[in-house]
Amino acid sequence: YRRLHTRETRLSKFNQTEIKAMLGSYTKVLFVRDPFHRLIASFLQSMGISPSFSSFVQEVLDSGVHNGSVAWKPLVSLCQPCLIQYDYVVMFGFLRQELGHLLRRAGLPAVSLLPELTDSQVQWTYRWLSEQMFSELSAQQKKQLSHFYRWDLAAFPFSSSFLSD
């Protein structure tokens, strides 16, 4: 496609015809992660900026969906899963299994290309962290977070998320 190899990376810079042509020529993979786990990771990466997880969550809620960081914005607002038909959706916590499948579908030797991933350890660690961090939040913050991420929770199977009702 004539503009396929330009420096522009945002789809919004292209017209509808160009977007349709580009998206039709790619295999589209979306990596998703429980929004509460994304919040925890963002907090841990910015340690020292907020005195507590609860105050960090309040800053996230106060900033809103449109002014937020890509690190914790709702996925639906970033990836447009209702508009873009993704070929694969890969869930964090099942990376080894899902990436292996994706590599095999692409005709690549999955075993030699995959890094060592211990999904069960990652899931256990985030479950423990989620319990600790969730207990720091007020009932109002929990309710607001569930509302803030409501579209992510509806669009993706995060059934064991602490934010699910």
UniProtKB/TrEMBL annotation:
Q: Output this protein's name.
A: Carbohydrate sulfotransferase
Q: Does the keyword Lyase apply?
A: no
Supply the gene name.
Chst8_1
Membrane keyword on record: yes
Q: Name one Pfam family in it.
A: Sulfotransfer_2
Q: How the protein sits in the membrane? A: Single-pass type II membrane protein
Similarity annotation: Belongs to the sulfotransferase 2 family.
Q: Where in the cell is it found?
A: Golgi apparatus membrane
Q: Offer an example of a GO molecular function term for this protein.
A: sulfotransferase activity
EC number assigned by the record: 2.8.2.-
Q: Which GO BP terms apply?
A: carbohydrate biosynthetic process; dermatan sulfate proteoglycan metabolic process
Keywords of this protein's UniProt record, alphabetized? Carbohydrate metabolism, Glycoprotein, Golgi apparatus, Membrane, Signal-anchor, Transferase, Transmembrane, Transmembrane helix
Q: Which GO terms describe its cellular component?
A: Golgi membrane
Predominant location category: Golgi
